[in-house]
Amino acid sequence: MAIREQRIPEKNIFLDKQSGKDFDRPQYKKLVRRMKKDDLLYIKSIDRLGRNYGEILEQWRVLTKEKGIDIVVLDMPLLDTRRGKDLMGTFLSDIVLQILSFVAENERVNIRQRQAEGIAAAKARGVRFGRPPRPLPENFHSAYRRWKAKKITGTAAAKECGMALSTFRYRAAMYKEKKQS
Question: What's 54-109 look like in SS3?
């Protein structure tokens, strides 16, 4: 919405719907390929550009120095490369960029840590992740016994049960464990 308020044509708006952990994003790559000298890039905030401190600084350098484009960060007026092209202006925007890049990466680290803690807590409470396993086919017990007795191969048993060999082996291990407990 903030970008659209700048009256930028839809064809010039690039939006990736994936993590900003790195710059290996299809729409970002397309944007960079299209940008040319003296173009103007609007970004809502630095953390929308990326979340890796070093890579944000590198991409900023590539865009502004190598490609010769100007960048405006909407929620941080100090990060507007159209203004302050003198030494002091460049120095101030570099400092602000470094601070905000650090904050963006630090937030990503915090999010991952909180996510890991949440998953661990949920697992400790017995929450199971993923979809529930399909019920075993009716002939699984028979195929399993013949496979264990080496009367048929694992591939044949898996085929009988209508599953991949790796799935059959996994389910067989779970079946054996359940029988022993």
Answer: HHHHHHHHHHHHHCCCEEEECCCCCCECCCCCCHHHHHHHHHHHHHHHHHHHHHHH
Question: Buried b vs exposed e over 57-75: b needs ≥16 C-beta within 10 Å?
Answer: bebbeebbeeeebbbbbbe
Q: What is the mean pLDDT of residues 1-18?
A: 81
* Residue 27 forms part of a structural domain: yes
Beta bridge partner(s), residue 41: 71
At 126, the amino acid letter reads G
Tell me how many domains the chain contains: 2
- Does the pTM of the predicted model rise above 0.85? no
Q: Cα dist. 140→60, 153, 154, 161, 169 in Å?
A: 58, 14, 12, 6, 12
Rounded distance, CA 97 to CA 54, Å? 11
Q: How confident is the model at residue 181 (pLDDT cuts 50, 70, 90)?
A: low
Is there a single domain that holds both residue 94 and residue 26?
Answer: yes
Q: By residue range, what is the domain housing residue 25?
A: 4-124
Q: Is residue 111 part of a domain?
A: yes
When pLDDT is averaged across residues 10-30 and rounded to a whole number, the result is 81
CB 152, CB 140: distance < 8 Å: no
In-domain check, residue 19: yes
